[in-house]
Design goal:
Elements: H1 3-6, H2 28-50, H3 58-80, H4 89-113, H5 121-126, H6 136-146
Length: 157
């Protein structure tokens, strides 16, 4: 017997940090099988969306696929990562991280969407050709290039 065990510090492998409750209190294997079946159904829904006429409008199709993916991620996090049975401290970690994620997206989307607004003439020469669905700024620039280029901008030929 070690000195630690003699002082009452038995660290058996029964608890594994689950606060004294075993995996049986998590609903048993039936719950995990039900979650697996739900994940298979959600995967089939994603496949159906991807191969349906809904994808003719990519915004709606991708929104549907992202919604299904979020549901699948939620099931995995809640059941397979055991967060459903954790104490309320999980909110202390996830709520601020979620707020920061939304804030980051809100701050970066305009920056990415308007990135071509301040392109130099040299950058426009090396940039990919914009598609018809791109911003009006890109279309105006391609029209100007066809008629002789920008009147402003650095670097001439």
């Amino acid at each position: 017997m070690t000195e630690h065990e003699a002082q009452g510090g038995d660290h058996g492998h029964g608890d594994h940090g689950h606060g004294g409750h075993g995996h049986a209190s998590h609903g048993g294997i039936g719950k995990y099988i039900a979650v697996f079946v739900a994940l298979c159904v959600f995967t089939a829904i994603s496949f159906a969306i991807a191969n349906s006429p809904i994808m003719d409008n990519p915004a709606i199709g991708w929104f549907g696929m992202m919604a299904v993916s979020c549901c699948k991620a939620l099931l995995v996090v809640l059941f397979f990562m055991h967060l459903k049975w954790e104490a309320n401290w999980k909110y202390v970690l996830t709520v601020p991280a979620s707020i920061m994620s939304v804030f980051l997206i809100i701050m970066l989307v305009p920056d990415i969407g308007l990135r071509t607004r301040h392109y130099s003439e040299e950058r426009w020469k090396n940039a990919a050709v914009p598609h018809a669905s791109d911003s009006a700024q890109g279309q105006d620039h391609s029209d100007q290039q066809g008629s002789g280029g920008h009147s402003s901008g650095g670097g001439g030929d």
